[in-house]
Fold this sequence. Notes:
By secondary structure, this protein is an alpha/beta fold. It has two domains: 8-136 and 188-279, 4-Layer Sandwich (Metallo-beta-lactamase, Chain A); 142-185, no CATH class. It is built from eleven helices and 13 strands. Strands 1-2-3-4-5-6-7-8 form an eight-stranded mixed beta sheet, with helices on both faces. A five-stranded mixed beta sheet has the order 9-10-11-12-13, with no helix packed on it. The radius of gyration is 20 Å and the shape is globular. The structure holds zinc ion (ZN). Zinc ion binds at residues 1, 58, 105, 107-108, 238, 273-274.
Amino acid sequence: MNPSTLSKFAIALAVASLLALPTAQAQSKTVTTDTHSFHEVADGVYFVVGTGSIFVQSNSLLIVNEDDAILVDSHVTPDAAKALIKSVKKVTKKPVRYLVNTHYHFDHAHGNQVFPDNIEIIGHEYTRERLLGNVLEQTTAATFTGGIPGQIKGMRGKLASETDPAKKADLEREINVQEAHVKALKEVIPTPPTMTMRDKMTLFRGGREIQLIHLGRGHTGGDIVVFLPEERIVFTGDLMLPMLAYGGDGFVNEWDETLERLKSLPFDVILPGHGDPFTDKGQITNFQAYLRDLWAQVVELKEQGLTADEAIGKLDLDAHKENFPGLSYNGIFELGVRRIYKVIDAQ
Ligand SMILES: [Zn+2]
């Protein structure tokens, strides 16, 4: 969920080092606008990240085909999506024909409303169902959004005592970005996909094959990955990230098997919904081990009669810190544990 704070340079390096392309194709290019960087990871395929001048909160994917283009995920607000659409025009003159939502979460789908009617929005039927519901009031969006004023206040406190001019300028910039984001959030009207799928849909655009695959429940009940078989690239949304993914709407007991199916796809590169691209399938195995451990420990504590909040204090997942240094038992983690209790109760 956290915005990637890595520099454009780090991402360019990561992308370049991932691509063991023949020399003729090796010059992958990056197009940068005021708001976005488009890192070309294969011919016409761009991994899209925000530059930080507007809060976008998730990565996107742009696929430029013979006659048209496809975007994957619409960011967190109408303003962020407008900036994305404007930036795409600097990369290609071809019209965006489809927008794909990897899942229904606010940070990937709350820019949907600014896409005009002639652009079909494709998502899992679960994504449509959730976006037609009260997503703004539900725990996930409400918690993340509700925390922003406190974060701004914290930054203001830091700013007051900061003496380094460069750090001061950074803080002022980030406060401005977040204040604009708070305003932009008021404009959100959750907008569902206009075309839905259940297990798989394949788009053939020009010479390109684009597979949209629901591998099973995991991060949510309706995640889809975008798989390009020829380019051996998969965009995973939040189903698989380089860091621990948010579990507050997850199906932790099924996520492991879903990831096993992800591993069986013939890809070389994972482009995640947050963070940097990566190639190591071992990180999927590491995440599976974490999910199994988390599930087993929560089940055991629940069986012992502990409430979710009591269980949170007893969980010990430190063994996974080596693979996931960001692991912490914070509020987001707590939402994940409470969710597991609900999933067990629903079984
Ligand atoms: Zn996300």
